[in-house]
Amino acid sequence: MAGAILARKAGKEKVETGEILFVEPDILLSHDNTAAITAKVGRLLEEYGLAVPDRHVIVLDHVVPPATVKSARNHKAVREYVDRYGVKHFFDAGRGICHQVVVEEGLALPGTVAVGSDSHTCTYGALNCLAAGIDRTEAAALLLTGKTWLKVPAGILVELRGRLRPPVSAKDLVLALAGKIGASGANYRSLEFTGDLDGLSMEERLTVANMGVEMGAKAAIFPADRVLEEWLEGLGVRREAWEGVSPGPEEAYERKVTLDLSSLEPMAALPHAVDRVKPLAEVEGLEIQQCFLGTCTNGRLSDLKTAARILEGRRIHPRVRLLVTPASRRVLEEALAEGVIGTLVAAGAVLLPPGCGPCLGAHQGVLAPGERCLSTANRNFKGRMGSPEAEIYLASPASVAASALEGRITRPEKYWREER
Q1: Residue 247's CATH number
Q2: What is d(CA 365, CA 352) in angstroms, rounded to the nearest whole number?
Q3: Based on the domain organization, do 374 and 332 belong to the same domain?
Q4: Contact (CB, 8 A) for 52 and 97
Q5: Which of 31, 46, 215, 294 is deepest in the core (most CB within 10 A)?
Q6: Which letter, b or e, does each residue of 30-66 get, where b requires 16 or more Cβ atoms within 10 Å of its Cβ?
Q7: Could you tell me the residue range of the domain that residue 60 belongs to?
């Protein structure tokens, strides 16, 4: 699928693995780092202007609201850039996490190329587009030229069989996959999904694609199917506005990995590596001081509803902090309307504004030395959420909610309630 999209963008009938192509991406994403990117080419921008203003998507999300004078000055510089160069797709602090905003706004479409100066740009592969992270220097050059280079990645076919059995979720799926492939097992490869996909919602696919980069993948792409088509229709995107791609024949892939979804159980990634994965049962009982529900991996409405289903009518452990960060303002509004936020807050959760803060240790959830956090985020590197002497375990929203109740890592099955 990656090769098919790149061939189309380059105007070629076919491309070869490893071939380097110069293409015009459909969108370029940046966030709080926009000021640093534009500073690299400030004088050239003044002389030549922005190549394609409508392709630059900017979302302020990493430190919102600003926690320091430095971050406030940075936000101000971004707003001035937006005004000066007529950037159409600008979303100020509070709108949400960039990757959630891009998909909510219908800015990443099947068959297109999306690049961003953030490694989790691969999230949009759930929408059947080639979405990849690029560095700040490449992003700066793209502002001036409208083009960038990409190497055609080899493909790894990921066959998913069966259906997940709640409370096992897409987060458990992708953690199991990371454990199987390894943190560098898909380096500059395209993870391309096939099999029994009709049972995976778009929100679940976004969770899986989001963590493709944690296996080293350049892209993680789901095919364009009825599930995606109906979801795009719900966003108001007309069917004639996009042309998707389908997986190639099995022999076109470097290798194939198969996962039996029906046999999966709740999983956890142990410090300090995303691929250090074990069944949650093997670390059950470990005391925790903080639980974090949110991020571009698991801050969507379905994630919040899962946690609320477990926490309804209950109170979190008195020695645990449960931080909840909706992925966007739209998610927050929907969760408020459905009573989900009320349930979480009544259980003792601390509601934070839509944004990235705790995930990268920027603010609103920094860990102290010796503390342990169970998080729905995508990374658990040493020092990621604050002190390098703290520990981060990754798990699903259901596992995080159940663990918040007991103050220790807990399997979610004992608290799971089927949706009424």
Answers
A1: 3.30.499.10
A2: 10
A3: yes
A4: no
A5: 294
A6: bbbbbbbbbeebeeebeeeebbbeebbbbbbbbbbeb
A7: 2-260
Residue 191 is assigned to a structural domain of this protein: yes
* Strand pairing report for 219-221 and 350-351: unpaired
Shared domain check, 222 and 80: yes
Structure tokens that stand for 307 in this block: 């946690």
Q: What is the DSSP letter of 152?
A: P
Along the 420 residues of the chain, how does pLDDT read in single tens digits? Answer: 999 999 999 999 999 999 999 999 999 999 999 999 999 999 999 999 999 999 999 999 999 999 999 999 999 999 999 999 999 999 999 999 999 999 999 999 999 999 999 999 999 999 999 999 999 999 999 999 999 999 999 999 999 999 999 999 999 999 999 999 999 999 999 999 999 999 999 999 999 999 999 999 999 999 999 999 999 999 999 999 999 999 999 999 999 999 999 999 999 999 999 999 999 999 999 999 999 999 999 999 999 999 999 999 999 999 999 999 999 999 999 999 999 999 999 999 999 999 999 999 988 999 999 999 999 999 999 999 999 999 999 999 999 999 999 999 999 999 997 654
Among residues 223, 205, 214, 132, the alpha carbon closest in space to that of 180 is found at: 214
Together in a domain, 188 and 320: no
Whether 33 and 172 share a structural domain: yes
- The tally of domains found in the chain comes to 2
The DSSP secondary-structure symbol of 289 reads S
- 207 Cβ partners below 8 Å, 6+ apart? 169, 170, 171, 174, 297, 298, 300
User: Token pair for residue 46?
Assistant: 């003044």
Phi/psi class of residue 130: alpha, beta or left (left: φ > 0; alpha: ψ in -120 to 50)? Answer: beta
Residues 249 and 283 in one domain: no
DSSP code of residue 51: S
